[in-house]
Each structure stands twice: as C-alpha cells, then as structure tokens.
Amino acid sequence: MTGTVVIGSQFGDEGKGKVTDFYGKNTDLVVRYQGGNNAGHTVVIGDQVLKFHLLPSGVAQGKRILIGAGVVLDPRVLKKEVEEFKEKVDLGIDPRTHIIMPWHNLEDEGREDSRGKTKIGTTKRGIGPAYADKAQRVGIRFEDLVDKNRLAEKIRDIFPVKKAILEKVYDLKLPFNENSVLEEYSKLGELFRPMLSDVSLEVCTALDDEKRVLFEGAQGTFLDNDFGTYPFVTSSHPISGGVSTGVGMPLNKINRIIGIVKAYTTRVGFGPFPTELNDEIGTHLVETGKEFGTTTGRKRRVGWLDLPMMKTSMRLNGFSEIAITKLDVLSGLEKVKVCTSYNVGDKKIDLFPYSNKGLENAVANYKEFDGFTITGKEKNYSDLDENAKKYLDFIEKEIGAPIKLVSIGPGREETVLK
Ligand code: GDP
Ligand code: IMO
Ligand code: MG
C-alpha cells in the first residue's frame, strides 16, 4: 500500500505541481481532495509550461486523475481545462463533490468588496461561498449536476435566495437568470456524467490492490481554515488530515507525507507575514523567482524562510520527508537568512502562534548563512555548493524531517534527490 500526500507547508505556491509531476511518474492515480480552482499548479517540461487549476497535475504524466468529495468544482473551468488537455485526460469525479455555481463567484466578489480593512484578498473564484453552502447543507453536488431534474429542483430552491442577497445586500447585477443557469449547467452535467466515479471507493480499492496513489494538496498549511492565520485563510483544509475527509479514506492508508518547502517564503493576499521583505532583496526574490500568482497574476509577497512556521507545519502535518524548492532563487545573494524565532511584545517565541494578535508587530530573529551558487545543472545532491548544503542541513535539523528532494529550477529535470 502506497498512499503519498504532497502538502504545501507554507502559504501556498511552494511548487506542489512540480513535485507532484516528479513523483507522478511512478504512480497509478493522482488525486485532488480539497480546494478548487483557486489553486494554480505549474509543471514545466522543456519549453512547455502547463498550468493546472482544477485538474490534478498527474495529467502531465498521462495518469488517471481523480477529484475527491472535498474539492469544490467549477464546471466552467473544468470544461476549459479538459478541452486544453483533452487527449491526456482520464478523469473521475466523486458524486459528492460540491459545485461552484455562478452566484458563488459574485458572492465572493461582493463580500470582499464590502469588507474594507478585513479584506482577505481571495482569488474571487467563489471558493468560500461554495464551502459555506456545503456547510449550510444547501449546496449542489456533482450527483445533482448530472441529473437535470434534480438540478432544476435545487436551482429552484436556491436561486431566489441568492438573487436577493446579490441584488439587495451587495447591490450587484446578475448576468444570468434561473433558466439560463439550468440550461448551461445541465449541459455541463451531461458532458461530465461519464466521469462520475465513487472516488472514495476507487482510491481505497486501488490501495488495497497495492496500487500507488498520490494525493496532491492545494494551498498551504497556514491557509488552513482552522490552523492558518484566520480569517486570512481559505475555506478548506490543506493540512495532511484534510486528505482523509477530502477523499473518504482512513488515515492509516497514508504512509508518506511530503512537505513542500520553498527555500524562502511567499504569500498572496493579506494576513500576517513575520519575515516579509520590503527591500531590494525582496524585489530581487520576486524578480528572480518570478513570484506572480499562477491563478490571479498578483505579485506575491516575499520573505526569508521562517522556521517557527516550519516547525509548526511539521507538528500539524507530520511530514515524513521534505522537498525543498526554488533553492536556485537564493543563488548569488551575499548572505542568506533564516528566521529562528520572533519577539512578540516582551516574549520570545519559536513556534507559530495560534492567534494573529501581535503578529503584525513581531520582530523576527535571524541566523545568517554565507551565500551560495546554484547553476541548475547539478545532477546529484553531492554536486550542490557546500554553503547551500550547510543551509539545507540546518533546515532539516530544525524541522526534524529528512530532505529527500531539492528543486533547483522549474523544469522536470532540474531536481536532485538526496
Ligand atoms: P504550486 O501552487 O505549489 O504548485 O506552485 P506554483 O506553480 O503556483 O508556483 C511555483 C512556481 O515556481 C511555478 O512557476 C514553478 O514553475 C516554479 N518553480 C517550481 N520549482 C522551482 C524551482 O526549483 N526553481 C525555480 N526557479 N522555479 C520553480
Ligand atoms: P496553490 O494550490 C497561494 C489564498 C488567496 C487568499 C486566500 C483565500 O496554487 O498553492 P480563496 O480564493 O481560497 O478564498 O482565497 O488564500 N490562496 C492561495 N495562495 N496559492 C494558492 O493555491 C491559493 N489559493 C488560495 O490569495 O489570500
Ligand atoms: Mg500555485
């Protein structure tokens, strides 16, 4: 039994797409289990750049891919992505998966625009409102989308409430009506009906049959709805525990948890960021690392690697190993810093706190390393610059999980194993 999970250890965009593709070669199934098309996962093969928002990155290796019940699925986006990669798509969708309806995008927009100071900076993809409807038990599921009568019934129930909220609370104009939504979405349902699969059953059976399954997390640990920097979080559970509820699978089917750690930190959207750099080094990291959002194109905020965050991530996820990404982006800097603790008020702390309170004024304490050079041509771990190895050794020891993979460029081949 080989159930492997790929987890974003930070605020998302750690390089989950690249690592999923790398390990995807030796796997049978690749499964998304939470989040939706707020994600943007990149796979680079030679001069081809593939971006996945909803489809698992396993497409790039031509594997069977599955979307589990914990995902929120926008069928308009799915149609586009399936058309883009059509000859390579062998997809199964769980009937319990909730559907992002067009009113969810508007609700997301309306709520964000009315929030003022507490704006989250969401991707406006309707993620929060779709999960809210699921929790309120008024959501539309994939099993409803593929059955026109059920869909009509559901839309009839929900539409008047959504219309009232959007028009009266958010003062928005609706570019659709009840009939146009039914017309469009029942067609999408028909298109995707052949893909219906009980993903919980398919995955558990595959694992029992000694197949290898790779679970591709989206977002990152500190965007977790409970354990992230609430309210500046997403509405799902990107931590490793999310895989069990997102697929419908017992915890003991997972035997490998890979934490993806970017060699520095980035964040898109608002919320605390104790090691954020607003200086020329920050600008250098944005430019060298091409730190612009894969989904929204927004410039990512950047900062040094944060070990209190990483140790907390280790506690929340139980990484059995670490994959370090974007080490090459630090190449050429005179000094590389890593945060070892913060001063919050008169307290020194070395774990990420449970509350944002005081975090905006946290002062990070750093350990400094001599700079190093990464060419991207290194083939083995032993080829890496000695100073880079010192940096990695320190990170490994502090986090408490072995580094097994180091990514030294966006390309599939720009990867060394330890
Ligand atoms: P994900 O959301 O975790 O899958 O990450 P994204 O794809 O949103 O962002 C990671 C970005 O960094 C993408 O543009 C990748 O192609 C790129 N990338 C991944 N690994 C490396 C690396 O080791 N070095 C460099 N320079 N870029 C990388
Ligand atoms: P991947 O899978 C980085 C952020 C948004 C915002 C917050 C809430 O590519 O790592 P949402 O639209 O989910 O309600 O937005 O979460 N966010 C991400 N940041 N990478 C992602 O996905 C993200 N998905 C959501 O920027 O701050
Ligand atoms: Mg991304």
Automatic annotation (TrEMBL):
<dbReference type="GO" id="GO:0044208">
    <property type="term" value="P:'de novo' AMP biosynthetic process"/>
</dbReference>
<dbReference type="InterPro" id="IPR033128">
    <property type="entry name" value="Adenylosuccin_syn_Lys_AS"/>
</dbReference>
<dbReference type="InterPro" id="IPR018220">
    <property type="entry name" value="Adenylosuccin_syn_GTP-bd"/>
</dbReference>
<dbReference type="GO" id="GO:0005525">
    <property type="term" value="F:GTP binding"/>
</dbReference>
<feature type="binding site" description="in other chain">
    <location>
        <position position="123"/>
    </location>
    <ligand>
        <name>IMP</name>
    </ligand>
</feature>
<feature type="binding site" description="in other chain">
    <location>
        <position position="298"/>
    </location>
    <ligand>
        <name>IMP</name>
    </ligand>
</feature>
<dbReference type="Pfam" id="PF00709">
    <property type="entry name" value="Adenylsucc_synt"/>
</dbReference>
<keyword id="KW-0436">Ligase</keyword>
<dbReference type="GO" id="GO:0046040">
    <property type="term" value="P:IMP metabolic process"/>
</dbReference>
<feature type="binding site" description="in other chain">
    <location>
        <position position="219"/>
    </location>
    <ligand>
        <name>IMP</name>
    </ligand>
</feature>
<keyword id="KW-0342">GTP-binding</keyword>
<comment type="subunit">
    <text>Homodimer.</text>
</comment>
<keyword id="KW-0963">Cytoplasm</keyword>
<dbReference type="InterPro" id="IPR001114">
    <property type="entry name" value="Adenylosuccinate_synthetase"/>
</dbReference>
<feature type="binding site" description="in other chain">
    <location>
        <begin position="13"/>
        <end position="16"/>
    </location>
    <ligand>
        <name>IMP</name>
    </ligand>
</feature>
<comment type="function">
    <text>Plays an important role in the de novo pathway of purine nucleotide biosynthesis. Catalyzes the first committed step in the biosynthesis of AMP from IMP.</text>
</comment>
<dbReference type="GO" id="GO:0004019">
    <property type="term" value="F:adenylosuccinate synthase activity"/>
</dbReference>
<feature type="active site" description="Proton acceptor">
    <location>
        <position position="13"/>
    </location>
</feature>
<feature type="active site" description="Proton donor">
    <location>
        <position position="41"/>
    </location>
</feature>
<feature type="binding site">
    <location>
        <position position="137"/>
    </location>
    <ligand>
        <name>IMP</name>
    </ligand>
</feature>
<comment type="pathway">
    <text>Purine metabolism; AMP biosynthesis via de novo pathway; AMP from IMP: step 1/2.</text>
</comment>
<feature type="binding site">
    <location>
        <begin position="12"/>
        <end position="18"/>
    </location>
    <ligand>
        <name>GTP</name>
    </ligand>
</feature>
<keyword id="KW-0479">Metal-binding</keyword>
<feature type="binding site">
    <location>
        <position position="300"/>
    </location>
    <ligand>
        <name>GTP</name>
    </ligand>
</feature>
<feature type="binding site">
    <location>
        <begin position="294"/>
        <end position="300"/>
    </location>
    <ligand>
        <name>substrate</name>
    </ligand>
</feature>
<feature type="binding site">
    <location>
        <begin position="407"/>
        <end position="409"/>
    </location>
    <ligand>
        <name>GTP</name>
    </ligand>
</feature>
<dbReference type="InterPro" id="IPR042110">
    <property type="entry name" value="Adenylosuccinate_synth_dom2"/>
</dbReference>
<dbReference type="GO" id="GO:0000287">
    <property type="term" value="F:magnesium ion binding"/>
</dbReference>
<keyword id="KW-0547">Nucleotide-binding</keyword>
<feature type="binding site">
    <location>
        <begin position="326"/>
        <end position="328"/>
    </location>
    <ligand>
        <name>GTP</name>
    </ligand>
</feature>
<feature type="binding site">
    <location>
        <position position="40"/>
    </location>
    <ligand>
        <name>Mg(2+)</name>
    </ligand>
</feature>
<feature type="active site">
    <location>
        <position position="134"/>
    </location>
</feature>
<feature type="binding site">
    <location>
        <position position="13"/>
    </location>
    <ligand>
        <name>Mg(2+)</name>
    </ligand>
</feature>
<protein>
    <recommendedName>
        <fullName>Adenylosuccinate synthetase</fullName>
        <ecNumber>6.3.4.4</ecNumber>
    </recommendedName>
</protein>
<feature type="binding site">
    <location>
        <begin position="40"/>
        <end position="42"/>
    </location>
    <ligand>
        <name>GTP</name>
    </ligand>
</feature>
<dbReference type="InterPro" id="IPR042111">
    <property type="entry name" value="Adenylosuccinate_synth_dom3"/>
</dbReference>
<keyword id="KW-0658">Purine biosynthesis</keyword>
<dbReference type="InterPro" id="IPR027417">
    <property type="entry name" value="P-loop_NTPase"/>
</dbReference>
<comment type="similarity">
    <text>Belongs to the adenylosuccinate synthetase family.</text>
</comment>
<feature type="binding site" description="in other chain">
    <location>
        <position position="234"/>
    </location>
    <ligand>
        <name>IMP</name>
    </ligand>
</feature>
<keyword id="KW-0460">Magnesium</keyword>
<dbReference type="GO" id="GO:0005737">
    <property type="term" value="C:cytoplasm"/>
</dbReference>
